[in-house]
Amino acid sequence: MLLYDVNGYIAGIQAGVGDSPASLLDIPLNEKEVEAKTKFVQGKCFYTMGMHYWYDISKDMSCDDTFPVFLLYNGGRLNGFGWAFNPDIKGTSWFEHPTKDQFGMFMKEPPTCLGKDAPVSTLHIYFTDNPVTGNFC
């Protein structure tokens, strides 16, 4: 959920990480606060997308436990987020479909379960006009 200030600018973002309204997590706008205040783990910088952060991932985790939201930072500031989920969503160019051998391009240690049983679809949402020319981490 996006939070706006009185002038209509994005003031923050929240994500639900559980089944109750009390499980809302405030996403830090400043990259330095991400790992200190949340369970998001730094992935890798993907040029034109930004530095990726993934929620509570590990190499040996079950894909049943993956969280569908990832964060994108550029220049130390939150500049977007994305969705990653197992359905193979087709019919639009908005979705990307990374293959098993590509996960290491934006995750330091990808969970071994990813791409094993089902394809993955991702969707990136940026807070900038032209992410391709401005997101260099």
Question: Quick gist of this model?
Answer:
The chain is mostly beta strands and 137 residues long. The protein has 2 helices and 8 strands, in the order E-E-E-H-E-E-E-E-E-H.
How many discrete domains? 1
What's the helix-strand series? EEEHEEEEEH
Structural class: mainly beta
Query: DSSP strand (E) fraction?
Result: 35-45%
End-to-end C-alpha gap:
23 Å
Quick one: how many beta strands?
Answer: 8
Please mark out the parts with pLDDT under 50 across 5 or more consecutive residues, or reply none: none
Mean pLDDT: 88
Largest sheet features:
5 strands, antiparallel
Give me the side-by-side strand order of the main sheet: 4-5-6-7-8
Radius of gyration: 15 Å
Please count the helical segments: 2
User: Helical content, roughly?
Assistant: under 10%
Estimate the global geometry from the Cα principal axes: globular
Structure notes:
It is a single chain. The chain is mainly β and 137 residues long. The protein has one domain (29-134). Helix content is 6%, strand content 35%. It contains two helices and eight strands; from the N terminus they run βββαβββββα. The protein has helices at 34-37, 131-134; strands spanning 2-4, 10-16, 24-27, 40-46, 50-55, 69-74, 77-85, 121-126. The strands form two sheets. A five-stranded antiparallel beta sheet has the order 4-5-6-7-8, with no helix packed on it. The chain is globular, with a radius of gyration of 15 Å.
